[in-house]
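Quick log. Single chain, no ligands specified.
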Amino acid sequence: MGLVLWTMMFSFVVTSTFFSLSHQQPPLDSSEQESLYEVLHSLNPSVPWRTLFPDDLCLSAPHGVVCDFPTQQNETPHIVELSFGYVSDETPNPPCSPNATLNPLIFTSFPYLSNSSSTIASTNPSFSSFSPSSLEELLILIGNAFHGEIPFYIGGFLNLEEVTLSRNNLSGEIPSSLGLLRNLKVLDLSGNKFEQCLPHSLGNLSHLLKLDLSFNGFSCRIPESLRGLQSLHFLDLSFNRFGNFGVPLFLREIPTLKEVYLSGNFLSGVIPEIWENLGGVEKLGFSEMGLVGNIPASMGVHLKKLTYLGLDNNKLDGPVPYGLLEYASEINLENNKLSGRVEFSTTKVGQKVKLAGNTGLCVDNNKVGCKRRSGDGVLGQQLKACKKTDVVPDDAVVFSGASSLLRFDSLAGVLFVFTGFRWFGYYV
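-> predicted structure:
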């Protein structure tokens, strides 16, 4: 299933077969009609929905309300698709007001939002009176200013593959019942006001590809159970309040990861040695986390697919592993305590490399292109040029080129690094 990101939209999307309308077709089920009026009112109370659409809502309804019409006479039609909010000028769905609320009837009163043939006998449908598994695929609500909490019974909609509720005013805690949605591939709750701890049950979502909980108020510890997300490609927990427990070590147990963002939390500690199993990572955001110590040299060896790295505004010290600058086209190391000589290949100078705020760093002025292009790239950030007397610190490890071979000489106590046609040796 492809990802659907619709601005200002709330949709239940299902598939169904549509039939021509018979003149003798019975009206829409009265309970569904009444529930739809209430849902429309909660989305935008300024619109006189009952006055504008006083008749059968299957015959005359706002755009975005779709019914299916049975082939046999005397069978009652039902609502099978609802789409609210702005999509484009060509799809004038019912608009959502700034104070729209998430009416629970959306979840409980439209059991035919599915291609399922199941029916309900109750004349007053409720969540317990039909199979929640009949709701299929998508629950998308983006940027509508909805407030309130996610109802616990959302875990009953077992066929959901995407839950995107981003950029609203939802609050409270995430219900543990979300862990029941074993078919879920996308969970995006970013840009809300959620707080407290993450439920351990999220680790049960073994088919999840994207988890975005950024820009909320989550605290406590990032649960170790997330190691169960063995299909995960995208993880964004940035700008929350996760506390002083360091970068989660379980990340090395999710080799499918391509993007990881933990910026803006209070994780602190050193950057752990977890990169050997994460060679597929392309983007890494570890800014403003209170990190200390050196940047692991192993990052320059294993992260060969890296295109973006953010380590700015931490307390990192020591040298910059050369491989990071070689692979990443965009790298931000600003405002740390890094030191030593920085070397760039000709292709990197002038790209998005940010090193300002590290008074101990100097740029190798002997590299081809650096003098000629001092108006951009790292030299444009007023980093000092290295002097002949400037040396790489004794504990530095320099990486260069596409691959490296490391070995320890136990007699001399020297780490040798072979990189293409050059050897570097530094005491360890």
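The helical segments are 30-43, 49-52, 105-108, 297-302, 322-327.
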